[in-house]
Structures are given as C-alpha cells and as structure tokens.
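Render this sequence as a predicted structure.
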Amino acid sequence: MNNKIEPPMSKLIFFVDDDKMILNLLEYTFNKNEFEVKTFKTGEECLAALNNQNPDLIVLDHIFEKVETQLNGMDTLIKIKEVNKAVPVIMLSSQQDLNLIPEFLNNGASKYIKKDSFFLDSLTESISLVLPN
C-alpha cells in the first residue's frame, strides 16, 4: 500500500516583458516551490508557448521598446483571450496613461499594476489573490 503524500502541483506563471532585468527579478522572486516560471521577451513568444502550455497566470507588460515586436501588450492581451479566455492576465506597465486601465480591464485583464518602487509587493499580493494555494 502506497501512502506517499504527493507535493502540491506548482502553478505555472508566464512573465512577458522586454526588460531582461525585470524578467530576472520576477523569475528570482517567484520561481519558488509553489510556482513554475516561464519568461518571454515578446507577446509573440508568449502566444507561441500558449499553443502547448496552459499557464495558471500571465503577467504582461504593455510597451515593448527593447525588442523587435509586432504586438504591444494590449494586442497580446486580446490574442491571449482568443486562445484561452479563462487564464487570468495581470498587466504590468510603467505607462502613466490612466485611460489604458479600463481598456485593459474591458479586454479581459484581471488587474493593472504600475511599475513603481512597490510593484513587487503589489504583484505578490495580486498573484496570491488570483492563484490561492
């Protein structure tokens, strides 16, 4: 008889950002036992991975300035929701345009977090709300 207790399955999070330092910080912060982290520099890379992986959450930047890309965060969000309506998406952006927030939410984003000095705290709290253990 096998009474072995299985460890809880880790949750898969996609982080999409053109800033390698931000991706490294997010990977370092969240790549713990309860999370498996995949990072992407463009929306296109994220969408390609969606074809064979089913993330529990996607954290998506809005503006991709440091890499060659056709899609911005809004375009990527819309395409993600076409592929998988159920996956929660948190928008993470340094943009100050408050008019974008309702547009993100209307297109299926669960939350908008501004990249500021406290964005890691806000993101950690939001992830714990979206992905309870």
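Summary. The domain at 11-127 is CATH 3.40.50.2300 (Rossmann fold). The two ends are 28 Å apart (CA to CA).
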